[in-house]
Amino acid sequence: MRRAEEVQGSCFDIALIGGVNFSLPGVTGSIVVETPFGVVRAYPFDVHGRRGVMIPRHADGQKHLPPHMINYRAIIWAVTELGIERVISVNSVGTMRGHPIGSFVLPDDILDMTRSRKSTFHDDMTVHVDMTDPYCPQLRNGLMNALVGRELGFSDGGVYVCTEGPRFESRAEIRMMSTFGDVVGMTGMPELVLARELNLCYASICTVTNNACGLGDGKITASEVVRTLREKQENLLEVLLSVVRSLPEKRECNCMHATDIDACL
């Protein structure tokens, strides 16, 4: 176990923020990153000369944190403490548009329906962040190319609706949200907007684990979600590691200018 200051100067190319049941095989060592918002443990890995870290979103020692209790600010701040500018988020979602179970979705927009989460780094000032294109097009293209190359079922684009959790949504809520959203999950926000506040590149790959409430047979269960994630774990890892291997040396997107719009008042 190392502390973040011991790896200063190390060049990490990307951070993978893992969701439920996500892990990288062969990763053993860890880095402890102290942030103003709490301590985060990151796990370094190497892929063909490219270096990254995996941060388990739900992990806090031996506890599994529910979505509304995750320390999103600490996680995203830890990414920048390690000198990382690119983030890929791994999410599980329910479909409101009939996506095949086990397929992948690369969202290109998001709707925040959370209520009680700390959603900014700037409690003492107003910072307006550009959310016109919230997900990094360069990272999304990398994910799409990896999915196409492996002939894996996926949907390019869609609105991710993020709810508070930890409960699943009601039938009435899904009827309402399905008029403007495509998939529903509990971890996309405020993670995305926090990354934008720090001008990071951020993209999400979502695994469709179930039909949203009222759109399938019977009730949604946590075991159903975990079972699908386990079945698709190998495919997901192949896609992610392919993206890491093929990362361009330079960022060629506008993510680094997300706050360059007369943002601070």
Automatic annotation (TrEMBL):
InterPro entries: MTAP, Nucleoside_phosphorylase_d, Nucleoside_phosphorylase_sf. GO terms for molecular function: S-methyl-5-thioadenosine phosphorylase activity. The keyword GTP-binding does not apply. The keyword rRNA processing does not apply. It is an enzyme of class 2 (transferase). Substrate binds at M186, N210, N211, A212. HAMAP family: MTAP. Although this enzyme belongs to the family of MTA phosphorylases based on sequence homology, it has been shown that conserved amino acid substitutions in the substrate binding pocket convert the substrate specificity of this enzyme from 6-aminopurines to 6-oxopurines. Belongs to the PNP/MTAP phosphorylase family. MTAP subfamily. This is Probable S-methyl-5'-thioinosine phosphorylase. It comes from Methanolobus chelungpuianus.
